[in-house]
Structure formats: C-alpha cells, structure tokens
User: What shape does this take?
Amino acid sequence: RVLILDFGSQYTQLIARRVREQRVYCEIHPCTVPDAFVRDFGAKGIILSGGPASTHEAASPRAPAAVFEAGVPVLGICYGEQTMCAQLGGTVEPSTHREFGRAIITLKEPSPLFEGILAPGDRTAVWMSHGDRVTALPPGFRPIAESEGSPFAAIADEARRFYGVQFHPEVVHTGIGASLLQNFLFKLCGVAGDWSMHAYREQAIARIREQVGDAGVICGLSGGVDSAVAALLIHEAIGDQLTCVFVDTGLLRYGEAKEVVELFRGHFNIPLVHVEAGSLFLEKLADVTDPERKRKIIGATFIDVFEAEARKLPNIRFLAQGTLYPDVIESVSFKGPSVTIKSHHNVGGLPERMALGLVEPLRELFKDEVRELGRELGLPEPFVQRHPFPGPGLAVRIPGAVTAERVATLQQADRIFLEEIRVSGLYDRIWQAFAVLLPVKTVGVMGDARTYEDVCALRAVTSVDGMTADFFPFEPAFLGRVANRIVNEVKGINRVVYDYTSKPPGTIEWE
Ligand code: XMP
Assistant: This one.
C-alpha cells in the first residue's frame, strides 16, 4: 500500500483517487504524523502532496524524517518536492516568476518516472500551481525536466528513488499525469494493482472487531447508502452488538421509510429500532418558514430523539457513522472557515455529550467505492444506486410552512417524477431528481371547472460531487408526460414547472 502525506493541498484527495484508480490501496494522513507512524505503516511508496505553505516560512510543515529513511520510493508533488529539497540539503526560494495553470515542460534526461511517456527533448503540457521554486538540488539529485519558470520542473535521485515534480500529475489537465503515477506505482514502488473491495471488506471487519471489542455500537440509519453500508459492514463484524436506530422524521420520500425497515429487519435480519417521530417533527416545524430555522430545528430534534433512544440501550459505547473520505479531508484540511450556505445536519455533538467513541468504517472511501462495497455486502442494486437525499428531507423542498398535508402532496408528485425517470432509464444518469412544492397558487381549468391550486417545480441535476451541478436536459415530451401525470393524479397541484438553474448560482436543493 501507499502512504500519501497531506500538506494541505486542495488536490490531495485527487492524488488518492488516481492511485486507487490503479487498484492500489492508499491512505492520506497529515504530514504531522510521527516517525513511528511512517515506519509502522509499511508503505511500498510515499507521496508528499502539495500545500499552501512556503518552505522558507518559519514553522512551515516538514515531512517526518522516517519518510526518507524507509528505503522506499518517494514522490514529492509541488510543495512536496520543495520540502523534500529543503530537508535533504537543497535550497528553495520565493520566485519572481510564479507559475499557475498550464505550463510546458521539456524532458532533459531519461528516467524510469517518464519511461514510455516522454523521451529527452519531448515537450508536454502540465498543470502548475506554485509560487516558490527549487534553486539548488540536494546531493544525489539531478534535474530531469525543466519548464520556462523552473529548471527543476522534475528532479530525481535515481539511486534512492526519490522524485520531485513541480507540477500536479493528479489533475486531468496534466495529460501525462496518470501514466506518470503508473510508472511511480508499478515500475518504481513495485506494487501489484490488485486491491479490491473484497480485500477492503476483510480489513475493515478486522479493524472494527479490534476497535469495539465486546461493547455495543449504535448506528443511525438515514435511508441513504452511506449509513446502510456502514451498518451492514459493522453487523458483519460484530453481529448483534450493533443496534440500528432509524429516526423516521416523516419527511422522507414516499414509501422509503417502509423500505428501510423491511430491508434491515426482513432482508438482513439486523436489529432495528424504528422511531416514528413524524408528528414530533411537524409540531416543532409548525409555522416555521425560514429555511435555516427549519434546518436547525430538524437537526436539533433529530439529535434529541436519537439520544433518547441511545440512552435506552445498555452497554452502548460507540456511535457508528457513514462518514466518507471527502468529509474527512474537508475537516482536516488547512482551509479557513467558509461561509455557511446551509447548515448541514448530522449527529455531530452527540459523541461528546454521551461520551461515545466513533466507528467510521467508510472513512477511507469515496462515494463510488461505498457503492461498490454495498454491492459486495449484498445491498440490493436499487438501494446501492439511490440518489443522495438531504437530512432535513422534504421540509426543505416545501418552501413556506410544512404541514402533514403538504408533505403527503409532495410525496405523490415526487413519486410520479421518479417513476417516470426510472421507466425511461434515466435514473442512473442523474445525480438527484425531486419535486418541490411551491407556496404559490395559480388558476387552472379542469373539465369545465376553474381550479386554484399549488405549483410544483421539478428539479434534476447532473453532478460529480454535489459541489457544482447542471440541470438535466430532459426531452420536452418527457417533461410534458410528467407534468400531465402530476396534475391529473395529485390532488392540490394544477401546474408544473421545470428548474433550469445550474449550481452555482443556484443550489441543488431549494432551501
Ligand atoms: P445544495 O442544496 O447545497 O446541496 O446544493 C448539495 C448536496 O447536499 C445535499 N444536502 C444535504 N445532505 N444533509 C445532508 O446530508 C443536509 O442537511 C443537506 N442539505 C443538502 C443535497 O441534497 C445535495 O446532494
């Protein structure tokens, strides 16, 4: 396996992605881990990420010395290259010629790192993002590629197998990036490229057993794929020491609460506490129209209900969460505080209040890997492919006050929209699709009678990570069919509109 040490680059996660795509298992850890950690990790290769610091600033981060004593290949990327130079006896200086974006590099000397990719004299475009540059190489190093801004765009100490690149091989704009990482992994580190979800499952189970011993674990199910996969994995590891708690807010999609209960109790035979708290949530939400207040109320009520259930169970010492890799990186990164666009809801705060340990068996995985693990654990395909669904549920898809009646109306419209999407084979091409019930009444005519009812908006987007999104380009005939069905079949809706806004400037959810 490969160790990636994070110096705070926005691209660190991408490095891990690229390595995993080669079926090589890797983990990201902060650059501040102690030497003993590096020695015990047993990496076959180490990658040092980029980062925002300057090596000549006081207290800028350094790689643990053990990295260079482990006897394995090391690849320093950008800041990783600079700290490697600084630590091994070279010099790094602020540069007057900052390089950002596209740059052209020329290979100067043959190296296993570029074997089969570039021959000496060949040029290629890469993606740079740095202000400092290496001005003198440490003993043993030679320059192997140069760019206009730097004679040391790539450097190597072939004897020790230490490599540094000033550019970012992990971003798609560096066309040779994937091949370069392949050379590093397969030719230099000699790893096999045979990592699989099956192997991950075995490892994860062993780690869960070791962590929790004979203590009880509680896991909150949301109906989404992450918490379901976490629960299945933990159940496989410790059986009925796990109790799942499903706080049913009454704000889920049509039929989903029932599906979750049947899947866990019926299909998997996993103990499940189903807390039907719909009326409590509606009571707390009565007359609340401000989106942030709705979110805060739902989050707080959720924690109260969950905590009350947890306290009823004996011997619970751990809380299981379906935290994914992107969340982990987000919370350890060096980024400053960002503006709150929406308060996201989870069970944060509960572990401290109840003195619970955390079990997070998906911490190393990306969303598509969680889906693969779900399949590996026998989660039915429709569940595996399920679109993401926000914690505050349908409450943030009903602008204005939320009532039981409006929830029921929205559930019907949403069900019809998704049915049509499934029938047309579009479900898996869409990141999220849903209906929104607007607090706007319009006039219509049905039969010979005037109607005065609500407007329903349809939203469907494509996205890779939910951070940016674009509207899904349905055929007009498809939208016409859905609109027709909704107006005919759902009492209380007499008009349907489609949302063409991308993110940014819109968000995916309406509130
Ligand atoms: P927005 O609306 O901010 O949503 O573009 C981005 C993604 O996040 C989901 N979302 C949430 N997920 N708890 C969640 O677990 C929340 O409170 C929450 N709010 C939004 C949203 O559905 C989309 O996938």
Remarks:
- The chain has 15 helices and 18 strands.
- Residues 341-342, 344-345, 388, 390-392, 432, 466, 503, 507-509 surround xanthosine-5'-monophosphate (CB under 6 Å).
- The chain has three domains: 2-188, 197-384, 402-498.
- Residues 332-338 have pLDDT under 50 and may be disordered.
